[in-house]
Structure formats: structure tokens, C-alpha cells
Amino acid sequence: MAIQSAGIGSGLDVNGLVTKLIQVESQPLTTLARREASYQSKLSAYGSLKSGLASFQNSLSSLKTASSFQTLTATSSDTSIISASTNSIASAGTYNINVTAVAQAQSISSAGQVSSTAAIGTGASTTLNFQFGTITGTAVNGVYPPTSSFAQDATIASGTVTIDATNNSLQGIRDAINAANIGVSASIVGDGSATPYHLVLGSTKTGANSSLKITATGDPALESLLNYNPAGVQNFTEVSTAKNAALTVNGIAISSASNTLNSTLQGVTLNVSKVGTSTLTVAASTSGIQSNINNFVKAYNDLNTSIRNLTAYNPSTQQGGLLLGDATTQNIQNQVRNSLGSAVNGLGGGVTNLSQIGISFQRDGSLAVDSTKLNDALSNNLKGVSGLFAAIGQASDSLVNVAGSSNATKGGSYALEISQIATQGALIGDTPLSATTSIGPGATLNVTLDGVSAAVSLAEGTNYTPSQLAALLQSSINGTAAFSSIGASATVSVDGSNRLTLRSTKFGGSSNVSIADGNGTTASTFTGTVTNGTPGQNVAGTFNGLSAIGDGQVLTGGTGTSVEGLRILVTGGSIGQRGSVDFSRGYADRLSTLLDGFIGTAGSIASTTDGVNRSITDIGRQRTALNARLADAEARYRAQFTALDRTISGLNNISTFLTQNLASLTGTNKG
Hints:
With about 675 residues, the chain is an alpha+beta fold. The protein is about 35% helix and about 30% strand. The strands form 11 sheets. It has a 5-stranded antiparallel sheet, with no helix packed on it. A hairpin with a 2-residue loop joins β14 and β15.
């Protein structure tokens, strides 16, 4: 086999020729690389711009809501006795507080058992019904005297637990009660005696109105162990008595079922920890707000510097910033500056621009703060400052509250007219209740509340008065899982003629109450001939004559109007003109929305960088195609020069042959 190598036969440098030709044809790759590097640098610049905008937006978060301007703080002289927090409606003041009792929950203990795991009774299905209320009387050695009474609290939902052959041990009963999550905690305590194991039950709520009454219906052994009625049979003994917290605030006596008091001082939440005296001071502090405003100014100046560096031109080096002349960057800068330079309207006067609180633009586009002027504005017109930065709404009618807004809501003052007040669905009986009503074992009543139907278990009892029956119904309905799991609840009351009213706590067209016969009960026993309620109504009205949609007590501005997304809560009052609703979009709120349009997933920066990335991808495709063409060209050149090499080599061989033959002929002639 012949072995050949390009250029060997002819001396022609085929590899060098091909390499130089390919180098010439590869020059467009260098141009593509420079373009790609330029695009990558621009992507990096957009990343820096986006980071600066995000930092600026982050500085706005502490200024864009009304709650950000809550300045009153509560300070206790002894936080081990009482602590406190405030909200936006608190008032400054000093309060002397003397705590004489801390609220506690009731705890009761069963008779001792030999085993905590042995079955109790036959395993027959037994229903435990837990009621909560107030005990009148004083326990002696944990037992209430016969003269005691139990008044159920209708506001605390009752609950039921089923015990059967699968859980009729002390441990099984404990676990079933805890799993039911009905406001009762269960544990087992051993005392070391011959019958050491006691089932200890306690209300999870503090206060005198959270004492327990337990009705067990089913297996006699479980009934004798678990029935507990402070006014009757007591198979448990009381370990600790339910108590209210007792305290005085500036000499005024206060009683609370909870150690957390929300309504004693307007806008202040008190937390009682132990008995003792403490002084609570509620005073204003604007230092945090001033710091947040200074952070906002610094974040803007940092952004301004970043944009200036990205768009600057250096005449000495004749080099421009990576985003010099970039339309997207210029548009962002202009919109942010225009937003900061325009006035805030909607609260009917007062503070409307940054210069009024000491913040002004400098020649280089940065912001400067006059600390004295800012401090004066915060001290004397905090409401105006809050309206300058936050999204704030206020209604002139005390029964109307601004509940929220959307990005589409425009600032302004809107006349409110209400044409319909929201109502609750209700079932009103037409027949007075009997003087006393008895409920048998295992009784249920079928109730439909806000479109959900369920069988409601009623605690067995005799001689329920009308008010006691109303309390039983209310706590039983609200303790039914089908309703409580979706937040549905009802109130039950009797009027002066002892007629029963069941009312949904929900407002609007989807609220209603109906009842039907259940196990051992008839609906007519409770409400007479009326068993289906009347649905509630949604609030209806307009803002400046603009359309609005009612849902329960909430009226929301219609889509496409200047009040789109504005939500108000109308808690009562009459129909007709109801004053005005003023709404203001402060700088922090509207800038945050504006910045979303720049740095959001569908924002202008994302759109621009998508275009840059597409250009980079296109360069990649061009590079791939060019490399393919270069590979083809190299193969073609190599084949052509190899063929030329062979031709020259053949001609050289012929030349050598002819030369040799001619030389031979010349020699012969001489001879």
C-alpha cells in the first residue's frame, strides 16, 4: 500500500495554506464574539439596575401601609406583672395598674382506676357532651354543694366525643378527648395508691365562664366515671377553680376571663402575668419612622448613583457606560423621578409633597433631608406624613371603614351613597317556647347554616328554660365540626315572648339558617311552624355614582372605574348619603407598584433582557452555522490542495524520468 502525506510529493505546504485560508474565513467568529461579550455586559448592567431597583423597593415596604406610622408604644414598669402592645387607635397616657388575680382554667380529676389500659364497661357506644359555663357556688374539697348551679355560656361552643370498644380505656378516653380539639385537654396522673390512675380534664380557656359540665350517655360504667354536673352528680373532683383576672386601671375595677385584655384601653392590648402593681406608659415615638424615611432617601440616592454610573460618558477615556443611551433605563429613571416630583392627592389638603417635610431634589438628581424640618413634620403632623407615603383611606361616617384597595384604585374624595344595608340570614320562630324543655339521650337537630347541613348533637337534660335552651342550641351548633371547620357560626336568642331566633353571624346573600327534625327532636318544638329562614342581603351602593359590588358588609368599587378595588366595610347605619370616602396613594405605595412594573416577571427589564438573551441565542446559532461552513471549507480546501499536490508530484516524476532519459540519450550519442 502506498503511504502519502500532503505536500510530501511536491513540497507544497498544504496544511499551512489551508490553515491560513480558514483563519481568513473565521474572522466573522471574532465579530460574533465581540457582539456576544457586549450583550453579556449589558445583561450584567441590567442585573445591577434591577438590584438597585429592588433595594429601593425594599426600603418602601416600611412606609407604604398605615400601620407603618403607628407611633405609640407601651412601656411597663414591671413586665413580669403586665406587658402591653398598641395599635393605630391608641392614645397617649399613663396608667396605674394593680393586678389582684390572674385568670385560670378549671381542672377536674376522676376517681382513681387500677389500670390506665384496661377496658372500662362493655364497649357500648357512649357520647360525651362537653358544655362550658359559669358555676354559682363554692367547692368544698373539690365538690360543689347541692345548692350550686351551672349556667351554660352560649358564646363557647360545646363539643362531643364518642367512646366505644376501640377506646374505652383511660388512655383511650384521654386520646379521644385530645384528638377532638373541643377546648378540653386530658391527661392521666398517677398518685401511687392502689387505684393510682386519674383522668384529669381541664378547659383550654381561662375564666369563670369556661367551667365544665360533662354529660355521658351510653355505657353505665362510663356514665358513672365521666358524668360531671356541678349542680348534680359529680364523678370528678375539682382540682383548680376557673377564675377571671381581676385588676384596677387608674382605680377602675376590671374583670376578664382572659389574661389578654383587648378592650380595657382603646388601642392597647394588656397581658397579665402575675399579681402585683405596675405603671404603664403609652407615649409617642417617631424615631423609627424617621429612620425609615432616611433609609428610603438613601436607597433612592444609591439607585440614582447606580443609574448615573451605568449611563455616564467619560470624555477622557471616550468610554460610555454600559447602558448609555438605553431607552429602558432612561424610561425607568424618568418615571421614578416624575412620581417623586408629583403631588399626592386624595386626603383633602395637608401634606402633599416631599419638600413640605424637608426632602428635596439636588442638582445631581439625588435627594437631601432637612432633619429639623422632617422631625417637626413628624411631631406636629404625623397623619399628614403618613398620607404622604402610605396608601390610606378614611371615611367621614363612623360606621364606615376603609378595608383595602387595589393597584387600580385612584386617589381622591368619593361621595358614598348606600342603597341597602347588609343583613344576616335568620330563622325567627312564630311560637313561644315551653316554660321548660327536656332533651333526651342521643338527641340531634338537623341544621342548615350558610348552605351547609349537619346533625347537631344536643346534651341530654331536663327542664331547660327558654334562655338555657337558646344557650344550648347556640353552643351546640357552633361546636359542630361541619360548621366550625368552615368558619360558620350562629347566634340563638329568645325575645320577650320566648320566641326563638337563630341568626347566622355571616352577612350577605349566602347567609341563612334552617332546621329540620332530628333524632328524638322535632323542629316545631323550637320554632313552631317556621323552619326555613330568610336569607341575608348584601350591602349595595355607589362611590360618586360609580358602580360598586356588595358582598356581605363589604362594598367594592367596580372594575374599570377610578374606585376599582376600593373596599369599604359598612357596619350599620341607614340608607342614603353617607358622607365621603377619601383615598390617597402615597409615594411609597405608588412607587412600589411602579417598581413592580419594572422588575416583576413581566416587567420592562425582564422584557428587555429577554430580547438581549434572544440576541445571544441568535449569535450562538450563527456561530454554529459558521463553524459548520468552516469545517466544510477546510475539507474542500484540503481535498483540492491534496489533489494539486498529487498532480505536481506526478509532473515532477515525469520531469525526472524525461531528464534521465535525455541524459542517457546524450551519453550514447557521444559514444
